[in-house]
Structures
1.
Amino acid sequence: MVILTGATLTLEEVERVVLLKEEVSLATDSVRQIQRNREVVEEMLASKQTMYGINTGFGKFSDVIIEEKDLESLQLNLIHSHACGVGDPFSETISRAMLLLRANALAKGYSGVRPKLVMQFIDYLNVGIHPVIPQQGSLGASGDLAPLSHLALALLGEGEVYYDGERMHTGQALKEVGIQPITLEAKEGLALINGTQAMTAVGVMTYLEGRKLLFQSEVVAAMSLEGLQGIIDAFDLDIHYARGHQEQIEVATRINQLVQGSCLVTNQGEKRVQDAYSLRCIPQVLGACWQTLNYCKDKLEVEINAVTDNPLIFSEQSKVISGGNFHGEPIAFAMDFLKLGIAEAANISERRIERLVNPQLNDLPPFLSPNPGLESGAMIMQYSAASLVSENKTLAHPASVDSIPSSANQEDHVSMGTIAARHARQMLQNTRRVIAIELICAMQAVEYRGIEKMAKRTREYYEEARKVVPSITQDRVFASDIERLTQWLTEKSEFKIRDKGGVIYDQG
């Protein structure tokens, strides 16, 4: 059971709730704080104080005072008018993450909603109702207005949701589970959609998958090192300690552990003096990729426990303050930075693929073909990898450097953080396919060299992957192999290496 307080949620708990469907509850202290916060809103309404978004219009309409009899309509109109997202919907995984993160933000007790509203989120999480939320339409400032409006529709019994493996009208799902839709009161519509939970949900799930993929890329790189009889001296830890980047040191340590005992790797001068950079510089490049991931992790850990609403209600001082915590710039920067790491992991992987298939760069069969000339082998797999890498380069352009004014120039600078997060996730999927292609080629290369000469750990990985994709004995439709192996990489989680008594490599 994960207990939401608004301040203590961890990335590991997000993973448990989103992927393992662990149940959620609301901390008792949070219930009390939310209630106190709500009472301040009601007191201020009773005293006829003017409060943005509570008894005024929104955005450019902030100077329009709303009559008391229209306050509930104001909130409902807000949700209806802002639910204009477009494009394919987010996955159920992302939708579930958005529910969790929005509930946690409201649990902090600064948003002026009733406890009942937060419990609606938790009920949806616990029964597995996930709103259908279009991916496109957010500027990433004033919050993820369009995506979060579609999330809010589901709380009202409107729109569509995923439930029990089916896409259906929300009312049908609520009827099946016995949950009543909620009716919004003053401030609550605005509290639902002012926030960064779309970009942050995409960011968190991309980070979690990216962490696993970088570990996997190291295993595959180690197998390529064996298939190309790479020089192990370049991974001597003295080199990496001399530079001092911790992530680089850790990658070099893991590669050494992965190829320990291998008869396929070589020593300096045995076959050549130096390897190409795509082999020799694996720790330097992937270490830097880990740095982008770690920076992203730091920002996400703050944001999943952040208050990103506007205005904020401070119950102890009985004050309502308008600010800009909804602006997504911190996450926009983090996701744009992460994109560089994702892109470079694919870039260097594709260069190793080229070295594995190009007969001018190795002594393996041309294009790893079982019958070169008559059969093309892995020739076009390298094309596909190159295409994915090139697409990543266009997606890597930073979204956060763009801004388009909105709401009659009241909202005159926006982050485009949700675009950055979406592109990072798309790049991750592209990179996973590149890694899958490298793995197909590396497995073929070590077979040619002799799998009995492999290191114990890479041999274990080889044998598992061979259950998914068989050896290339003749040309076939390799697209199916790539997709099966990509799915295997997506689902595979358990692979550990121990060093000096502690786990240093852990996909679990």
2.
Amino acid sequence: MTRSEKVGDTYDSKLIKLADCLDSLRFDNNCYGKISRENHGSFEWIWWHSEYRNWSTRDTSQLLYIQGKPGSGKSTLARYFHDNLQQREPAAASAIIAKFLYSHREGQLQTSHSNMLQSILFDIRAQDEFFFYHQFQTNYRQYKALAARNGGVHMHWPYELLKDTLAFLQTYAHSSGYYLIIDAIDESDEDDRCDVFNFLFDICANTKQCTVKAVVASRPVGQLEIRRSQFHGFIRLQDETQNDILNFARSFLWGLNLTVFLDKAVIYIIDNAHGVFIWCS
């Protein structure tokens, strides 16, 4: 075998390891595609909001908390933010973006903190293969050894091993940084929810070699509210969406030939919606 063939075999084996690692982390966060898209022009205010600007422009790792009542558009905003971040935010143009949506309606798999961590790591690994070589492969070997002891059957990554793997961000250098978007955390398993919050705060507090910007969207829950002062930004969604609801109501009612009553109907909707999009429809 020639040297070039040996190099080729080594390269191929690395590709196989990378692909196997990615497959082991694969999790179908299928409810993301079910989120309604924003009405045209909605949520554009986020890019100029003072709390967002303060969170996004600092060169340190930061946590942003978006709180909203049920039906106020948190998940739609999270999807809009994810889909437009790299185009609207210059600092994120080449960043690694990972997301997860909790959903109790989709069953236990979508409320699991292990699946959240696994999905986040899948997105990171899919976009940045060098993260695999920064100690990640050591934990992957641990996972493979556990799987082998389990008879070689595909198994889920252990929760603590997933946390330990994501914690590598604290010592990993990536010039463009990371954005983590975690939506509907109020719908997650209550078991270990506090532990996940503490872990996210710890990631942002101790990541120095690169920048991690995390967004957490949730209904008000006690475990988050008592930590609100620890966040680097806070947006109460229903306080910001009056114009969005106005535009949504107008577009919804425009085709109903309510020319005389259109303005009155829109004012009635805005006054009674109290920041809840679902009420309008």
3.
Amino acid sequence: MDKEKIQSILHDVQNCSMSVDEAMLQLKMEPFEDLGFAKLDHHRGLRQGIAEVIYGAGKTTEQIAGISEAMLKAGQKNILITRLDKEKAEILSQTLPLHYDEMSRIGYLGELPEPDGTGTVLVATGGTSDMPVAEEAALTAEVLGNHVDRLYDVGVAGLHRLLAHLDEIMSAYVIVAVAGMEGALASVIGGLADCPVIAVPTSVGYGASFGGLSALLSMLNSCASGVSVVNIDNGFGAGYLASMINHMGGHK
């Protein structure tokens, strides 16, 4: 149940078009819905400001469809599905109004909302190979109501590429820095920006990168202040956190 639904119930009680007992019944029934294979948390949007997100990997198309349909029935306008492969997306799109992005493996129901965050979320990558993770972060932030700018392939192997975009870096409200290899991009951006920087290590790299562990440890040991780190390839987590920061208010 979202805030608008709660407000509608309260207005109905205030206008005497709904009894207190009826309102209590609706509120009691709403916290979660048991679908058998999943317990859908309808109150997450009310508690956290963002509705439950469907993690697509490991779920069948029938399970994803069932959860989505229950969320739509409960009045959820935008539904985000992460780690959704192309084959499942094609099946789901036959019965649901699904938008799908193959690079980020993100699907969403409903239209992208008008941005209502404080400022701009900037998503930057060290290389082109980091784009799938970056797009997961960027599209997550867009579905959650943020204006997102993208700055791709600006890694430290050619630092002048990054320095040519200082205006975007300085004006961003929060920056997501996505990089594999040695993960140095986050430290460099952290030393330039006056906003929070969310570092995302990727599994991109040669043998000694250990599947992204090298970038993770580099980012955790960043000497730049104001840099936080999410898990390897966790673009969704970075986009979600960036949205939370961007909706806290305040001005640049």
